[in-house]
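Here is the promised in-class demo. Please do not try to memorize the tokens; focus on the logic of going from shape to residues.
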């Protein structure tokens, strides 16, 4: 399997190459050159397999000959062994035709663990073979940082540094990062906000000598390996509801568009998904696009579903590329123009084609609380604020006759303040995290200063030198 950049000016790479590269050299995102396809008989044979086995079979065609199947299978087993539910991604019925696909049983209680836990093993495997070492640097407002740290902690040939804005993540989120004791993890609490952290990370990547000296790498949501790790749960849940002999709809609470893109890839592989419902909070760029072809950047506003507080959905570029007929030159032009103008000029035929498959939906904060309360009242089910946006979208937009799978992207205990506002009590953390508030925290405080932060990363790299 070869991968090409959506902007057409970067070298073709294999799976190991795109895993380590993340973003393509030309600023584009890597896409497989063709879609692997399962026949109906092959899909039926996957139904009911234990999740790690199914995941290995779904991901195998993307990895191709970079990793022998037995090794990939072993990594999938290890990646999901630590999940807090025997079904890994259980499907729970909430109403006739309405199902929550629980993606929050991993170590950090959010769906990002599904892809990142596997990515940790993939990185270690590929680096071990090549003898390289990488230093992952990232910024987080909460969920991504903790999932990345949990995934990379203790892995050979990898160090990870995560910058978080001091005092601006929730306590659960901060503790999930700072209580990891592995000696390849550096947490930095920056005096500033999330944008400052992100700017510092961009500046480190932009500092070519430093980037090279440190061997910097990223695991952000544009890495193809993360998309690949999110496809299997859509295959598994659709099969459980009667695919390939019956169509389903999928509804995804969306930020960077990575999770819903994975569902669309499952369809390209043969899973009959009749509709994609893209659920957003008040940061509604995707809803405006789907309703009126208005993909224009507005200021980001805070909401009760912070992991969906985005101005631009970076993975949308992959869908754009597919819907303009894999025309990389056109995609590059559209993206260059978008950067300058702040409004993406998606060609009318491509927009119409996207709309035939995708529906957009927006929910504000009061609506989110109302949905949490309603779901709790009607079926005793506690949905986190992100999942609640998805549930409301599914109730509103589900096509008649299709069962809807809603991606339940986080555990309610991650967002106790919003839950308390909606139902009057704070949900308990799962038993394996019950002592989170007592665990020892380790982190370094730093000013919002590039040279200072680079100094910390460098000192950490040399911490074991004699
Ligand atoms: C990251 C995240 C999302 C958004 O996912 P994307 O792939 O960026 O669209 C939604 N919900 C939760 C809980 C998340 O952590």
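The designed amino acids, position by position:
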């Amino acid at each position: 399997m070869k991968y090409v950049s959506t902007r057409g000016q970067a070298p073709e790479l294999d799976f190991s190459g795109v895993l380590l590269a993340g973003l393509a050299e030309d600023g584009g995102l890597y896409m497989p050159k063709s879609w692997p396809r399962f026949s109906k008989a092959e899909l039926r044979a996957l139904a009911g397999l234990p999740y790690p086995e199914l995941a290995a079979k779904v991901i195998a065609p993307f990895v191709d000959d970079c990793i022998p199947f037995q090794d990939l299978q072993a990594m999938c087993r290890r990646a999901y062994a630590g999940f807090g539910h025997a079904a890994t991604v259980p499907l729970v019925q909430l109403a006739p035709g309405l199902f929550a696909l629980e993606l929050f049983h991993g170590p950090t209680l959010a769906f990002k663990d599904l892809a990142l836990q596997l990515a940790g093993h993939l990185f270690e495997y590929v680096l071990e073979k090549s003898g390289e070492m990488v230093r992952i640097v990232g910024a987080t407002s909460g969920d991504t940082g903790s999932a990345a740290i949990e995934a990379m902690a203790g892995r050979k040939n990898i160090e990870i540094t995560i910058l978080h804005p001091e005092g601006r993540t929730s306590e659960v989120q901060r503790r999930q990062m700072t209580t990891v004791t592995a000696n390849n993890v550096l947490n930095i609490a920056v005096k500033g906000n999330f944008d400052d952290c992100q700017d510092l990370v961009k500046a480190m990547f932009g500092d070519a000598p430093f980037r090279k000296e440190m061997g910097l790498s990223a695991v952000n949501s544009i890495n193809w390996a993360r998309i690949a790790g999110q496809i299997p749960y859509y295959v598994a849940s659709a099969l459980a509801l009667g695919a390939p002999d019956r169509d389903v709809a999928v509804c995804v609470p969306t930020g960077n568009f990575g999770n819903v893109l994975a569902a669309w890839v499952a369809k390209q592989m043969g899973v009959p998904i009749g509709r994609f419902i893209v659920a957003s909070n008040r940061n509604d760029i995707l809803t405006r696009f789907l309703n009126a072809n208005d993909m224009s950047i507005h200021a980001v506003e805070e909401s009760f579903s912070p992991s969906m507080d985005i101005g631009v959905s970076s993975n949308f570029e992959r869908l754009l590329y597919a819907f303009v007929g894999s025309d990389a030159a056109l995609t590059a032009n559209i993206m260059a123009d978008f950067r300058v103008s702040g409004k993406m000029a998606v060609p009318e035929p491509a927009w119409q084609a996207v709309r035939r498959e995708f529906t957009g939906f927006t929910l504000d904060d009061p609506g989110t609380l109302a949905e949490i309360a309603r779901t709790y009242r009607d079926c005793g089910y506690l949905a986190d604020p992100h999942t609640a946006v998805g549930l409301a979208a599914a109730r509103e937009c589900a096509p008649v006759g299709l069962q809807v799978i809603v991606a339940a992207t986080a555990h309610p205990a991650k967002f106790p303040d919003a839950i308390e506002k909606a139902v009057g009590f704070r949900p308990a953390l799962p038993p394996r995290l019950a002592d989170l508030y007592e665990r020892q925290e380790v982190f370094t405080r730093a000013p919002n200063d590039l040279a200072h932060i680079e100094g910390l990363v460098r000192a950490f790299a040399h911490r074991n030198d004699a």
